[in-house]
Here is the input.
Amino acid sequence: VQLQASGGGLVQAGGSLRLSCAASGSTVSILGMGWYRQAPGKQREWVAEISRGGNTNYEDSVKGRFTISRDTAKNIMYLQMNNLKPEDTAVYYCKASTGLAATDQYWGQGTQVTVSS
Here is the structure.
């Protein structure tokens, strides 16, 4: 599975961005996908996830502001981010999982999101 993330940029606080993650390769084997982020000097953290069946989960700080979705026909996952805050500034990574093993986790290259105050 190969992942290509895009859609990052610079936005003012309160603004919106939509990230995309295009999957290719053995996409039929993907069980779930998710978004993570890593701010400068911090560890990568989980943001949101969506299962093959469409169930979603969110990290508490983004609930009500971010929406994860997936177009299975196009093999693209999205993260709609509204009411962005400076603390959302980070490199955002997408991940696809085909199983539980570490070797079953696939990562995109990351896209920078910068929110100015």
